[in-house]
Amino acid sequence: MLVLSHTTGYQLRAFNDAAEALGVELVFATDRCHRLDDPWQDRAVAVRFFDVEHSVEAIVRRARELPIHGVIAVGDRPVVLAAHAADALGIRWHSVPGAQASTDKRRSRAALAAAGLPSPRFERIGIGDPRPSSFDSRTPLVLKPVGLSGSRGVIRANNPSEFDQAAARIGALLARPQIRAARAGLEDEILIEEYIDGREFALEGVLTEGRLRTFAIFDKPDPLEGPFFEETIYVTPSRAPAAIQAGIEEHVGLAAQALGLYHGPIHAECRVTQAGKIYLLEVAARPIGGLCSRVLSFVDPADGTAVSLERVLIRHALGQSIEDYAREAQAAAVMMIPIPRHGLYRGVSGEESAQAVPGVTEIRITAKIGQVLEPLPEAGSYLGFLFAKGPRPEDAESAVRAAHGHLAFQISAPIALSTEH
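Predicted structure:
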């Protein structure tokens, strides 16, 4: 099975472990330097996500040596290349237009609006463009980089002054060399939307020839009202009314169809107003990101043992049935530990007492000693992840909150560089 990913993807080890358990050989295609001679000793195909033609050629050459029977993308950037590779290899997956729309907020918004799905008014502007006159200055707006994922660069503005500040801040973020180096072609665009007041939910699932199978609907219990929109806790099963959950599933299925997503994993985010109106924020053609996938565990119908999301997705990618794989009965929660301030990471204390909180199943601190930390909206990472399970969703949620309260992170001020000689 072909796995397209960044070289630093958290989920690569999880997919590798799942593949070994299933007796499946993985072929990695990652954005490593093609001039280095297999530095990680994994025989990965060196690709460039912005250079589709040559990257597909390299993947097809490898497929002549080792036939490939399934495709999956880990993270947003590899999605479009994965669609092109699947098309070239004759493998069922999401369509190329669908993959492109899922990674481009402007295309996605336009497709959902054209399909008649609830959508906020939106407009695209370039970096440095003036505020659009089409929006009432009294209406809260949300500014989003068109090509970045998650909540990175997403800022709420309540008035013209905040709009100008947000646009300048996003422009500075998009000017960073590491973002320009991605060459996604979306580095100079900002999407402006009307702010939608409501609660947020996420849906994890898979499409099989256009038919949606929902693995889980997650509550996001913390209010996401801005000015930044940092996701912290996911809890499943959802405590929303059954009618709301059914509506979320229906809207996600319609949105996937409107975007052109057809076969493979999807991760969707939506906002539900107090009146019950559902707005899709995104439908991504990939599984839940980072280590968050560890919040989902499934029961193997053969022997009743617990298996990972990655194991289920590999079976699906290879055309094997997953109909009898159901999520475990216990409620589960994950906290993505937010970065509180800018500085150098020096360490953490309290892990032992946090691990002792009833219900906590795992603590994974992913920040590295000496790493420069940056909070949202510029941040692209977290301090780590907390996982918990319990009889009820509120039990799992309380456990990760309590565990977080035991952790004390040491973050020192960044070193200031003098310009004097």
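Summary: Residues 331-421 form a domain with the D-amino Acid Aminotransferase; Chain A, domain 1 fold (CATH 3.30.470.20).
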